[in-house]
Amino acid sequence: MAAVTGSGVAAAPSSLLLVVGSEFGSPGLLTYVLEELERGIRSWDVDPGICNLDEQLKVFVSRHSATFSSIVKGQRSLHHRGDSLETLVLLNPSDKSLCDELRNLLLDPASHKLLVLAGPCLEETGELLLRTGGFSPHHFLQVLKDREIRDILATTPPPAQPPILTITCPTFGDWAQLAPAVSGLQGALRLQLRLNPPAQLPNSEGLCEFLEYVAESLEPPSPFELLEPPTSGGFLRLGRPCCYIFPGGLGDAAFFAVNGFTVLVNGGSNPKSSFWKLVRHLDRVDAVLVTHPGADSLPGLNSLLRRKLAERSEVAAGGGSWDDRLRRLISPNLGVVFFNACEAASRLARGEDEAELALSLLAQLGITPLPLSRGPVPAKPTVLFEKMGVGRLDMYVLHPPSAGTERTLASVCALLVWHPAGPGEKVVRVLFPALEVPARARGDAPGPGGAAAS
To answer: Using the 8-state DSSP alphabet, how is residue 348 labeled?
Structure first.
């Protein structure tokens, strides 16, 4: 409970701690996130006379409250407000939730503040992977430059001493160029900003307890928890041509279906695959198309492959009621997988190579991925589906030009063309362009090759 002044109003703690963390399926990623959290907290040189950090972290572990977001599934907030320190830990936040809490942090009157940005991130740019998108230095500066924040600060009496905000974030990639821009904002924000200072504090019992608790909170869920079974029985059948785009963080997934034939394109960067909400109601995914291997396209697909392997283990182990096991084990069968197997174009710091993982999972499932290339000009289509009196679905591979293409040119540009049998029906074309520029090199998040339909 916060201290109470003579007027009976609770006094705000003089120190504020905001930590961000995200779960991911790799032990290496979890270790990396915990190391970054430890580095961030130990860099905070707050005066022990103002805030006994070791003691306050112990209090947080034993007394904090947990809130689950009703909007962003999987997002949790761990919060405790003590006499000298208010602590908020965001787990698996969305980009909007993180930006909102950053604004609150900037506007809070606490004299000492610490922001620790730690989570799975791309190893070249350092862009953080959040529940619903990425968070880059560009996004961070957008919050710091927010006009509304400046206007609010301009209308409040300036403090005798500007508050000190210590910020720890990735030290590589685009974050390494952040210092000059951050320093230039100190006056407008009425803050002393310290970016990635060296470790000041020794390891402590309270910090160890805090990190152990966060580690337990970030433990990756099982495949059955990550991809939940359908709530109702029966299978969905899609007749008319349709194409759905599913947001997946830094990269999206797409789903095309016609007359019961289904094609899944990429899996998105979120292991909790957004396409699963639809796919789990199908008895079969006839084709899987991976336009490019990377951290923005494969994690969602790898979650599906992991689930199918877990289903096999569940069947072999037995146990539990038949109805319960049947409900858990429902997932669509997989048909052909088109995948130009090569080293992932984008990887997560300390993370597994998603392309190698996909190949390993496919091998365990007995599925051999088929490579794609254009071949001789003019390009000839691969017939994916054909039924007399109904129509034909062709796939034209426009890139890479040949099977001997170098690994760096392995991304696929594919055109799906549906030719209905009825003379009055429209031909449907859906283009999935090759990804020449990785997502990490741009400020936006690509879709599954940017699907375009006509």
So the answer is: B
The string of pLDDT tens digits covering residues 228-271 is: 887 766 677 777 889 999 876 678 899 999 988 999 999 988 88
Coil, helix or strand at residue 18: strand
Sketch the domain layout of the chain as residue ranges. 14-217, 240-436
Look at phi and psi of residue 318 and say left if phi exceeds 0, alpha if psi is from -120 to 50, else beta: left
How far is it between the farthest Cα atoms of the chain? 86
- Give whole-number Cα distances, 431 to 152, 176, 242, 366, 400, in Å: 47, 37, 13, 29, 15
Cβ–Cβ < 8 Å for 273, 248: yes
Task: Find where tokens 């899987």 sit.
Answer: 288
- Which residue type does 7 have? S
Rounded to 5°, the CA angle 354-28-80 comes to 120
Chain centre distance of CA 73: 12
Q: Fill in the amino acid letter for 419.
A: H
| CA contacts within 13 A on the Cβ side of 150 | 10
| pTM tops 0.85 | no
Look up residue 59 and give its amino acid. Answer: V
Distances (CA, A) of 2 to 5, 213, 279: 10, 23, 49
Report DSSP state, residue 69.
-
